[in-house]
Amino acid sequence: MSVSFISAGLSTLPASEAYPLCGPEWAARPGPPAGCGPEAAPPRPGWKNPHVSNVTVQLEMKSLWEEFNRLGTEMIVTKAGRRMFPTFQVKILGMDSLADYALLMDFIPLDDKRYRYAFHSSTWLAAGKADPATPGRLHFHPDSPAKGAQWMRQIVSFDKLKLTNNLLDDNGHIILNSMHRYQPRFHVVFVDPRKDSERYAQENFKSFIFSETQFTAVTAYQNHRITQLKIASNPFAKGFRECDPDTWPRAPRPVLSPIPQSSRPLKDHHREELGPALSRGLSGAPGTVHLAPEALLAPPGCPSVSYHGLYVGASVRTRPAPYPFPETKVLGSQEALPLRPPQGALGLLASSRVNLPLAFPLDPLYR
């Protein structure tokens, strides 16, 4: 089944009859307009193949489409292509379970006008004659063709369909003119196994139009109410929603249990092992540890720093350092370094000059 064969069959619907299908201007016409009922009727009556004549289609998310339609649905078109929201989804009934069908969509202009949005009145106004028509394209559902039983088993979604305003698009996207109004059409095509199936092209397909799905193609949303409705109803737009942070769902935080304390007080010999500074720092309420400033220093038994012991195999002979430390005063030996703590450093060190033996070796290269 070729694309030219299907296009030839679908071309039997004249463009003059593809313009607005529902609206006040059609009220004077006799008979109900096509596509205005809960289950859309084919655009043009005529004899159809029994494999498609009994097919009925129901639009999914109908209430959401109607809500958008009341505000004036807008669909974004970009050069790279943008998916539709709401997504066109349908439920199909009445197919032959063993027959093969192809499902496809196309888009037709609602009129021959170009529009602009009046922000002061929040309405769309005609702004002149329509731009030259874009190349007509058909979008086949990626599962086509398939048995009727498969199509009827679940909801059919055209979530891969993309709209673009790039006239040179080579990705198969639907090409539309910005600021023009369009009506999507849904087609069910019976895959006729006969060799001369082209002779029956007009009777092997059935088209459905839902007026609530018509929209205006735009490069940026014009109506702020459309923007708000899309953010509120699109599950992929959660990042744009504005709400009270206190109402956001939060994951439960892990409960940090306090450090287990022994029920028995520390013995004197335990305090002696910990040292006087650390044992004094352990005083306080259970579950909390307060360290005295002296506990942050090196323990008394830690060896002082000597640059002679930093090199393996260095001579045991000691000699003074070749270069004195900048802005320091040697106090008897270089094993104790005078450090100048910053003024008011959290009150840990009260004096402005304290000799602190370092608890780690100091590289002479960084002295």
TrEMBL record:
Skewed-composition ranges (Basic and acidic residues): 265-274
Residues in T-box domain copies: 59-242
Quote the CDD domains the UniProt record gives.
Answer: T-box_TBX1_10-like
Q: Cite a single Pfam family from the UniProt record.
A: T-box
**InterPro entries, alphabetically?**
p53-like_TF_DNA-bd_sf, T-box_DNA-bd, T-box_sf, TF_T-box, TF_T-box_CS
Q: So which domain of life are we looking at? A: Eukaryota
Name the segments for region: Disordered: 248-281
Q: Which PROSITE patterns match?
A: TBOX_1, TBOX_2, TBOX_3
Localization of this protein: Nucleus
User: Known SMART domains for this protein?
Assistant: TBOX
List the Gene3D superfamilies: Transcription factor, T-box
A GO CC term assigned to this protein in UniProt: chromatin
In the record, biological process GO terms are:
anatomical structure morphogenesis; cell fate specification; positive regulation of DNA-templated transcription
Keywords tagged on the record:
DNA-binding, Nucleus, Transcription, Transcription regulation
Please list the GO terms describing molecular function.
DNA-binding transcription factor activity, RNA polymerase II-specific; RNA polymerase II cis-regulatory region sequence-specific DNA binding
- What name has this protein been given in UniProt? T-box transcription factor 10
> What is the originating organism of this protein?
Sarcophilus harrisii
**Source lineage:** Eukaryota, Metazoa, Chordata, Craniata, Vertebrata
User: What's the gene?
Assistant: TBX10
